[in-house]
Amino acid sequence: MHRLDIDLGERSYPILIGPGLLEDADLLEGAVAARDVLVVTNETVAPLYLERLKRGLAGRRVAAVSLPDGEQHKTLGTLALVFDALVEQRMNRDACVIALGGGVVGDMAGFAAACYQRGVDYVQAPTTLLAQVDSSVGGKTGVNHPGGKNLIGAFHQPRAVVSDVGTLRTLPPRELRAGLAEVIKYGLIADEGFLDWIEAHLDALLRLETAGIVHAIRRSCEVKAGIVAEDEREHGRRALLNLGHTFGHAIETATGYGEWLHGEAVAAGMLMAADLSHRLGWLEAAHVERVSSLLVRAGLPTTAPRIGATRALELMGMDKKVLAGRIRLVLMRRLGEGLVSGDYPADALRETLVAHFGEAA
Amino acid sequence: MHRLDIDLGERSYPILIGPGLLEDADLLEGAVAARDVLVVTNETVAPLYLERLKRGLAGRRVAAVSLPDGEQHKTLGTLALVFDALVEQRMNRDACVIALGGGVVGDMAGFAAACYQRGVDYVQAPTTLLAQVDSSVGGKTGVNHPGGKNLIGAFHQPRAVVSDVGTLRTLPPRELRAGLAEVIKYGLIADEGFLDWIEAHLDALLRLETAGIVHAIRRSCEVKAGIVAEDEREHGRRALLNLGHTFGHAIETATGYGEWLHGEAVAAGMLMAADLSHRLGWLEAAHVERVSSLLVRAGLPTTAPRIGATRALELMGMDKKVLAGRIRLVLMRRLGEGLVSGDYPADALRETLVAHFGEAA
Q1: Fewer beta carbons within 10 Å, N or C terminal of chain A?
Q2: Over the stretch B3-35, which tens digit does the pLDDT of each residue have?
């Protein structure tokens, strides 16, 4: 078991990574201080791992609520089910919410914990690669609004993250690949050496070899945690983590949440960011090709739907990261070094959008 | 205009108290930094004060959402209307939410501001005495759940509080009296001299004489702010502010939200706290009588509904301030000095409950 400590002063917490952690009673005794626990999970994950986690939590009062599975259910309406369960089980301020599932479960369980009685503890037990490398680090929680993703939420840090890599064996391969998109992202924005390592070990990662997977998760969390620690409330550098996301949001919104996986949209979006970075003279054509071929090897999509550049721009404009009307994008100065900029020629962005989304209708 | 500065480090803010503030453009220019504003109000207050506030905010982009009036609408469902308005108006992270109304509007607008894009600014413009002396100070925001009041919420400090005492002229007298219950509370828990002052100036307060009202609001906010500053996240001393509230919650829950005003339930509850403090030997019978007669002079109820001691205890047990199953109550060591204690004989509490709620059915 590997342990990574996230240093956030009073809100510091450990990330524990390894196989078999969900039923490791000794480990959970340290990670979950509360005696009253509500496990928030979903209908897909519950049959696979809920009983296992309950065994690991033996000796506590454990209740569970199972939510419908899917990003389309990440709403205030579904969130109310978690509040109902907390109230029905008479959970008090000393209770702990455990999120057992992917990013959607984590975001909702974390937001419910942030709001219930104005804040109770929560622990993340992510069961997807995406959640293990991304959404379980950084303290962002929330739900979607019909007008946009994650428009309603809170910053609320977990008390611990318990990443049982054994759960990846039941993850659909498509979701594993979507998680790898975020792993690749960390290489692109912050660590060229890690990017090299991913290229060298991609086949082992796709085969879920434990040592490789644990390293990929650990290094991803380290990169993300380093950035988050510098900028907990997302005023500056943290925006780097959104490489590919603004482009990707346009894809997700145009196709309706759920058709494209988040990581898939991010993959296609990262290639667009590389394309624009090339047009601005920062990346060479060979670098863009290197990004593209790594994404293809990882089985990720690199071709956006042909919704047209104008529609794509409009959808990017509604993205919540817009600063006073100006679209700031995460680009790459070189492979392994991201930057956030709103200072680029509008034509260059338009060329990238036309190349990937097609001409305006 | 009187100004009271609440010192909370980075989150410090001013409370501005006086007549005519809602249409004072110069004052609002200082208090509301944002250029994009969503005013959250309700169907009762909007016709009285919304246009006035909009005049005061001239030069900004101002949108408004009017909620149904009443505690029974302080729900996640009503909150969604505020999120809908924020999204529809394309308010971004630099926007400001202004709460124009009483405590219910303030709690919901503040909670929406806490969650929208994980936190935008908000300013309180309270139009009831209760909101001016209580709910606009302290940073508590939230909504009710069918299982209990304020079970879902956040701590989110306003950027400013603009208390226009002119709005009290349109307040129903019953609500004015309910606000006075909280003013009396500050005297009881923290300042015997202020209690003397209230007794001497009660008639002037009931007549809404400006100088008296401004002093009552200012001193109430000072007492509350002093306690909150010591204990922003409600781990200890802040509980003093709940004098009468745990008893009062039982009344409000038993009768359904809305029949008793919050301040009315607190008034009856404060008398119960005085009664129990007397049974514990801390207050003399004459002190309890003094509390009772002040509440009666202020036109507040001192007689609880006869729901029976057992039912009352059960309803108090579901109160969210319960610490690991034990009911901690705010009591009075003497007039002007509150204390929080779970260390009292169960029989004494039972005697108080029987005296006020009647025998068990």
Answers
A1: C
A2: 999 988 889 999 999 999 999 999 999 999 999
Cα separation, A51 vs A57, whole angstroms: 10
Residue B281's domain comprises: 173-357
Q: A109 and A257, same structural domain? A: no
Continuous segment of H or E residues that includes residue A244: none
Where does a domain end: A169, A194, A226? A169
B59 HSE (CA, 13 A, CB side): 10
DSSP state of B323: B
Instruction: Confirm whether A356 is a catalytic residue.
Output: no
Model confidence over A84-141: pLDDT tens digits?
999 999 999 999 999 999 999 999 999 999 999 999 999 999 999 999 998 878 899 9
DSSP result, B180-191? HHHHHHHHHHH-
Q: Do A155 and B118 touch (CB under 8 A)?
A: yes
A267 and A159 in a common domain: no
Residues A184 and A165 in one domain: no
Taking CB atoms and an 8 Å limit, are B320 and A142 in contact across chains? no
Contact B96, B37 (CB under 8 A): yes
Nearest CB partner across the interface for A324, out of B88, B94, B117: B94
Give the domain-ending residue among A118, A135, A169: A169
Give the C-alpha distances (Å, rounded to integers) separating B148 from A38, A79, A173, A253, B265.
18, 17, 44, 37, 15
Q: With a threshold of 0.90, does the pTM exceed it?
A: no
In total, chain A counts a number of residues equal to 361
Give the CATH number for residue B224. Answer: 1.20.1090.10
Q: Please state the domain count of chain A.
A: 2
Torsion of CA A287, A291, A297, A303, to 10 degrees: -120
| Residue B68, token pair as written in the block | 């149904």
Q: Which residues of A touch B (CB under 8 A)?
A: 76, 79-80, 83-84, 86-88, 90, 92-94, 114-119, 140, 142, 145-148, 150-155, 233-234, 318, 320, 322-324
Nearest residue to A82 (alpha-carbon basis) of A128, A131, A49, A122: A122
CA dist A135 and A158 (Å) reads 11
Q: Which of B107, B145, B152 to mutate to test the interface with A (most CBs of A within 10 A)?
A: B152
Predicted ipTM > 0.95:
no
The mean pLDDT value for B102-124 works out to: 97
